[in-house]
Amino acid sequence: MKSEPSTQVKRLAEFLGCPFTKEEEEGGSVDKILELCSLRSLEQYGGEVGDSKNHLTPEMENKIDMIVEEKYKGSGLKF
């Protein structure tokens, strides 16, 4: 992840079933995600366990849970 973060973010997006479009890649979406997920950015904005309830609707949380559960199926990981 550290040696090729852009490549890994693209692979992760594909794995989750929502790959980047050519326009998104050319528009810098991958770089924007990397910046938002950087330690510098995360330290600035912080976050708390359970804080997603203040930012996501129940429907959004359920959708994320369904995607993660589907992707983990058969991996041996428990969700």
TrEMBL record:
<protein>
    <recommendedName>
        <fullName>Sulfotransferase</fullName>
        <ecNumber>2.8.2.-</ecNumber>
    </recommendedName>
</protein>
<keyword id="KW-0808">Transferase</keyword>
<dbReference type="Pfam" id="PF00685">
    <property type="entry name" value="Sulfotransfer_1"/>
</dbReference>
<dbReference type="InterPro" id="IPR000863">
    <property type="entry name" value="Sulfotransferase_dom"/>
</dbReference>
<dbReference type="GO" id="GO:0008146">
    <property type="term" value="F:sulfotransferase activity"/>
</dbReference>
<dbReference type="InterPro" id="IPR027417">
    <property type="entry name" value="P-loop_NTPase"/>
</dbReference>
<feature type="domain" description="Sulfotransferase">
    <location>
        <begin position="1"/>
        <end position="76"/>
    </location>
</feature>
<comment type="similarity">
    <text>Belongs to the sulfotransferase 1 family.</text>
</comment>
